[in-house]
Specification:
single chain, alpha/beta, Rossmann fold, 42% helix, binds 1,4-dihydronicotinamide adenine dinucleotide, oxidoreductase activity, Peroxisomal multifunctional enzyme type 2, peroxisome, oxidoreductase
């Protein structure tokens, strides 16, 4: 049971692998037998500049340890070149980890068009371009593993990160959709929500906590989700510090806002029913669009058959 999980014969592309989390992923995949494309533009944490040394150093480290790796210096916005590097050097692509990222944090009142655009380009468009280039190969070979990198800011929001949170939340929708479109081709797409001490979190995660939040503690979670033995598809996994959890969408049981198909919905009814609408005690967790929208079809059926009990409303009792 404890046999090592390996990636021999697999070709893994890791974007933004010149440092931080991406480097940890690249080293682990290569250490377990994969051929790795180490992509990194080598710019600064705000997305300015470029430097081939970022990717070169990681490739050198992998090769010094006896592993197989090549560098690619394109921005993820030119994702097709990154996938081409995999095909040209290793003849195939099996795993894509969309990890490259930058920050342009600013309170929303001060956010400029370029702060917004650059963040969407690198995170969202970068993942789109790189994944689209890999997708046809994954489909043709009926095998693919994709990781998209979201963040707690994307799930919950965070002060000063409207641009970044929007892009990261966008990646969750992107991932969830690909998980559905790819399922029948054995393409699994999952989302990771990491926390790690890296260049990106300098000044956010205090230096004394960096040891506890080492990027290499996250890499095994990503590697497992990308392994051929892992069936998981369409999940969001939050992980850091040697701990991992799964995120899900949860919604309340809800409440009727009218009792008959012929009635309208009054604002006052919404007000009076608000406690029930927002009450999470009997919550449910839809996992696909049919389940989610099916609830409204059920509600319509009940309205049609007259099976909705009378609404107990404050304004009716008060105003009548
Ligand atoms: P990092 O700054 O150490 O690594 C990101 C790498 O991406 C850098 O080497 C950078 O040169 C590269 N990169 C940036 N723009 C690129 C582009 N256009 N094309 C190719 N490469 C590019 O940062 P870290 O912390 O390792 O972040 C990795 C990912 O994890 C990012 O997507 C980040 O948003 C995400 N993340 C990180 C968290 C953390 O606590 N470190 C928390 C939540 C998400």
């Amino acid at each position: 049971m404890n046999r090592l999980l390996r990636f021999d014969g697999r070709v893994v592309v890791v974007t933004g692998a010149g440092g931080g989390l991406g480097k940890a992923y690249a080293l682990l995949f290569a250490g377990r037998g994969a051929s790795v494309v180490v992509n990194d533009l080598g710019g600064n944490p705000h997305g300015d500049g470029k430097d081939a040394r970022a990717a070169d150093k990681v490739v050198e480290e992998i090769r010094n340890q006896g592993g197989k790796a090549v560098a690619n210096y394109d921005s993820v916005t030119n994702g097709e070149n990154i996938i081409k590097t995999a095909l040209d050097n290793f003849g195939r692509v099996d795993v894509l980890v969309n990890n490259a990222g930058i920050l342009r944090d600013r309170s929303f009142a001060k956010m400029t068009d370029s702060d917004w655009d650059l963040i969407q380009q690198v995170h969202l468009q970068g993942a789109f371009k790189t994944t689209r280039a890999a997708w046809e190969h994954f489909r043709n070979q009926k095998y693919g593993r994709i990781i998209n990198t979201a963040s707690t800011a994307g799930v919950l929001g965070n002060f000063g990160q409207a641009n970044y949170a929007a892009a990261k939340a966008g990646l969750i929708g992107f991932s969830n959709t690909l998980s559905k479109e790819g399922a029948k081709f054995n393409i699994h797409t999952n989302t990771i929500v990491p926390v790690a001490g890296s260049r990106l979190t300098e000044g956010i995660i205090p230096p004394d906590l960096h040891a506890g939040f080492r990027p290499d503690l996250i890499a095994p979670v990503v590697a497992w989700l990308c392994h051929e033995n892992c069936d998981e598809n369409g999940v969001i996994i939050e992980t850091a510090a040697g701990y991992a959890m799964k995120y899900v969408w949860e919604r309340s049981k809800g409440a009727f806002l009218r009792t008959k198909l012929t009635e309208d919905v009054e604002i006052e009814t919404v007000r009076d029913k608000w406690g029930e609408i927002a009450d999470m005690t009997e919550s449910e967790r839809p996992t696909n669009i049919n389940e989610a929208i099916g609830k409204f079809a059920e509600a319509l059926e009940k309205l049609e058959s007259g099976n909705v009990p009378p609404l107990v409303l404050d304004h009716v009792t008060k105003e009548n």
